[in-house]
Design goal:
The protein has helices spanning 7-19, 35-43, 47-63, 70-82, 91-110, 114-126, 132-135, 137-153, 157-169, 183-187, and strands at 23-26, 29-32. It has 188 residues and is mainly alpha-helical. The longest helix is centred in the middle third of the chain and has 20 residues, at 91-110.
């Protein structure tokens, strides 16, 4: 999918690496035999081209992943996009990526990977413009609430308290948007 070539051509292109046992083939996927081999292959990509490549891979993964399967694939998709976040410039794509980062953060939190969840929440918030509290209140609120929770769970109590205080002082949501169930948590 990433090569955008038929499987037969990809198989032929990767035959030498497979024969030299640098990669393994499982069904229709290939994997490096070791992280060091992957790092060495990655270092061959010119630094100036890496972000564009990650963005292309992220877009392909998102386009080829059914909506009902995105939760399972969210880490692969988001990690590619986040490595190219500076190139994501369209407001709609930025918002979608912020939502995907929130989903990844929630999945990481479910696994008690609070530090990883915190990084996804930071990345998601960084994608949104200043006026997002008014335009996408629920999304920003969920990013901030989850971020405060992860800061608390990783021991950064002062940051969590600041975030909750700042969230409470944020511009009010539009009157046509119902209050989030999490509002009660912040008010308490």
């Amino acid at each position: 999918m990433v090569c955008e070539k038929p499987p037969e051509i990809v198989n032929a292109d990767l035959w030498q690496a497979l024969r030299q046992e640098m990669i393994l083939r499982r069904e229709s996927n290939y994997r490096f035999v070791h992280d060091r081999v992957q790092e060495a292959a990655y270092s061959l990509i010119p630094e100036g081209s890496r972000a564009e490549l990650h963005l292309r891979i992220g877009r392909l993964l998102l386009a080829h992943t059914a909506v009902d399967r995105r939760k399972e694939a969210v880490f692969e998709i988001v990690n590619q996009f986040n490595r190219a976040a500076v190139l994501v410039s369209g407001a709609e794509e930025q918002q979608e990526l912020a939502e995907l980062n929130l989903l990844a953060a929630k999945r990481a939190k479910e696994s008690t990977a609070y530090a990883s969840a915190l990084e996804y929440l930071k990345a998601g918030a960084a994608l949104l413009p200043e006026d997002s509290w008014q335009r996408r209140h629920d999304l920003v609120f969920q990013l901030e609430l989850n971020r405060a929770e992860c800061e608390f769970l990783t021991g950064d109590l002062a940051a969590a308290e600041r975030r909750l205080t700042d969230s409470r002082a944020a511009p009010l949501r539009p009157s046509n948007v119902p209050p989030s169930p999490a509002c009660a948590w912040i008010c308490i």
